[in-house]
Write a structure and sequence with these properties.
This protein is mostly beta strands and about 120 residues long. About 0% of the residues lie in helices and about 50% in strands. The chain has no helices and 10 strands. The protein has a 6-stranded mixed sheet with strand order 2-10-9-4-5-6, with no helix packed on it. It has a 4-stranded antiparallel sheet with strand order 1-3-8-7, with no helix packed on it.
Length: about 120
């Protein structure tokens, strides 16, 4: 079954930046019409962060991170990227991509750890 796969996570110092990428995998030939980024920290519920449509239009970023995060589509790489800046320790979480409504099976995500 086709799915979305996340990459780009890692360890970053507070104030640093990181870009995560989401790509189609398996039997999925094209990206879903609307792709979203989510995150889940230990002991917390999954949180919606941002979404964007196939055309790259209508990008939406949650108020909680909109001053620091941005979402975009890279047509050449066929990815949906989440650009994160001014990272804080509270941004530490596993980051996932899915359709905007979370309709696909969730993947393993990519871990982002913000620590000095």
């Amino acid at each position: 079954q086709g799915r979305l796969v996340e990459s780009g996570g890692g360890l970053v110092q507070p104030g640093g930046s990181l870009t995560l990428s989401c790509a189609a995998s398996g039997g999925m030939i094209t990206m879903p019409y609307s792709v979203g980024w989510f995150r889940q920290a230990p002991g917390k519920e999954r949180e919606f962060l941002a979404a964007i449509t196939t055309t790259g239009g209508s990008p939406y970023v949650a108020d909680s991170v909109k001053e620091r995060f941005a979402i975009s589509r890279d047509r050449a790489r066929m990815t949906v990227d989440l650009q994160m800046s001014d990272l804080k320790p509270e941004d530490t979480a596993t980051y996932y991509c899915n359709t905007e409504t979370g309709s696909l099976p969730w993947g393993q995500g990519t871990q982002v750890t913000v620590s000095s």
